[in-house]
Amino acid sequence: MSTSPSVSGPAPGGTAAGRAPAEVAPTLDGPVPKTLGFLDQGAFWANLGVSLLGFAGVLAVLEPAGAPPLTVTAAIVATVVGTVIGSAMVGLSAMPGAATGAPAMVLLRGLFGGVLSWIPSVLNVVQLIGWGTFELVVIAQAGTLALGGPTWAWVLGAGVVTTVLTLRPLGMLRLLRRVVTVLVAISVAYLSWWLFTRPELDLAATGGSWAGFWAGTDAAIAVAVSWIPVASDFSRHSRRVSTAFTSATVGYGVTQILCFVVGLAALALVGGNGDEVFAPMLAAPLGLVALLVLTARETDQSFANVYSTAVSVQNLAPRADRRVLCLAIGTVITVLALGVTIDDYAVFLAVIGSVFVPLLGVGVGDALVRRGTPPDLSRWAPSRPMMVVAWVVGLVVYQLINPGGAPVWSDAWTLLREAIGFAPPSWLSASLSSFVVAVLAAAVLARLEQRRRRSPR
């Protein structure tokens, strides 16, 4: 992937006086600070890997949508395999931003063209609003359980804090490195020790089988790859490309695995009831303190979602003020969080994976063919419909293998699968299959695109 793109908008590096700005410019026309080192980014990704949603959301791995429930052992293996694959994908997606200084959706101008990049941008806005909403829901769930009070008050409070943090994003990342990460590490280590030393913990008592292993793996991958379309929004401020990859892959991967395994232990103690996942943690002598630390820290998840939603919107409207957008988006997710529940989470994940795993595959396949060719990241870059075709092919493969459990959407894919007589074997991973197919389709179509451009008319 080239480090010298043709860009209309974001300017890598410092200011006119040669001094790097301390914060992100309000519009895409401003300079791009290159101030983040390994510790800054590693702390950021490590904190994203530890999520209250992960403690409860690991139920999507243990009981994957459209597949038989797993044993706890199978769920742990699926968590490790899925997280390693997914975090590596996130690391790959962070590299172009560090190389070019461009945010994630602007990078897609080089892949799809200026106008066609609006399609993934809109989808990304939708998924990020969904993630931000669920984050506020789980913050409210944990806060209500820990200290009581009305759920709506917790939602409103978390929404306000989230929105304020987005106004100074690089300052937020520095705060994570200096203070928050240490407190989070202590809290997670303490809760892990408490849960796994309970005499009543019986990880083998939940039943299940290995039949839905790859569906569970896909769920773990889906949690990680949801960060693919936002990774470059933060890695664009990295000093080095290699640092962007390593910090995302290692920082996120290690903590998501730890978070999911802790969640599995908590679920085993409450008989698999996701609504009670925090109860065993609160039973610890210092459980309330640890949970409050994690609840307060959860706002970094909602912060990342709201901030990247605003940056994605800027691909459509480059001169829009990010701060105004963040205020509007923060308000939207707060209102939505007042009306949804955590029960909708697993269905949401199945749809996310089918969209963004093949999107990364298309980017990899195109980069293999066009390596050394600077991407055109200008707002009106020529459209490349062939890459959209490759993306759709990857999405179709994912859905045919794992249609998930979303009403209407999943039913339609299941009917199509039955109509063509396709019965995927249990060992087939929807994420890996769609990624590989998208890479191959993009490589073939990019080569065809090159030949058409070279042929005389």
From TrEMBL:
**Gene3D superfamilies attached here?**
Hydantoin permease (1.10.4160.10)
Region Disordered: start-end pairs: 1-24
Q: What keywords does the record list, in alphabetical order?
A: Membrane, Transmembrane, Transmembrane helix
**Record field: transmembrane:** 44-62, 74-94, 106-131, 179-196, 208-230, 250-271, 277-296, 324-342, 348-369, 381-401, 427-448
Q: Which Pfam families match?
A: Transp_cyt_pur (PF02133)
UniProt-annotated location(s): Membrane
InterPro entries on file: CodB (IPR030191), Pur-cyt_permease (IPR001248)
According to its record, how does it sit in the membrane?
Answer: Multi-pass membrane protein
Write down what this protein is called. Answer: Purine-cytosine permease family protein
Species per Swiss-Prot/TrEMBL record: Actinomycetospora chibensis
